[in-house]
Amino acid sequence: MNRHVIEELGLSFAAEPQWPEDRFVGAEWQAVFRHLPGQAGTFFVRYGAGQRIDAFAATLADALTSVTTTLDEPYVVDGRPARRLVLRTNRRDGEAYDVVAVGLEIHGIPVLIGYRVRESADVQPTLEQTLASVTIAGHGG
Questions:
Q1: What would the pLDDT profile of 72-118 be if each residue is shown by its tens digit?
Q2: What are phi and psi of 131, to 5 degrees?
Q3: How much is the pTM?
Q4: Domains of the chain
Q5: What is the pLDDT of residue 104?
Q6: How far is CA 63 from the centre of its chain?
Q7: Helix/strand/coil (H, E, C) string of the chain?
Q8: Cα(6)–Cα(35) distance, integer angstroms
C-alpha cells in the first residue's frame, strides 16, 4: 500500500495504488474518492464547508432510499476526537449499502472520512484497515 496525502489537511491514509482515484473540487468543499476493483466499495475523504457528519447522513436518504443508523459512537482519529456513524442504506430496487462516516475537524475544517460498501461485499475489512491507517501531521494528540 502507498500513502495518499491530502496536503491542505496534513492527512494521509494507506491505499492500494491500483485503486482508481476521483477528486471533486467545489466552491466550498472538496473530496477524494478511492475506488476498490469491481465497484465493491469506495473510500472517501470529504472536507470543507458543510461536511459535517449529521448533514452528510441526511443527504443519503431520498424518495428511493431509506437510511438506518446502526451505530453512533465516539471515535478517535490519530489522537483526535471524532464521531463515527455506521449507516445502512436500502434502495427500493433491493440494493443495500453500508456507509461508515467519521466526522472531525482538522485545523478548523470539517472533515468526513469513511467508506461505502455493498452489503454483500467482502471488502469491509480492507476498508476498515484504510480508515484505521489515517494519520494527521502535527495533530498534537
A1: 999 999 999 999 999 999 988 888 899 999 999 999 999 999 999 98
A2: -60, -45
A3: 0.92
A4: 2-136 (3.40.1000.10)
A5: 97
A6: 23
A7: CEEEEECCCCEEEEECCCCCEEEEECCCEEEEEEECHHHCEEEEEEEECCCCHHHHHHHCCECCEEEEEEEEEEEEECCEEEEEEEEEEEECCCCEEEEEEEEEEECCEEEEEEEEEECCCCCHHHHHHHHHCCEECCCCC
A8: 17
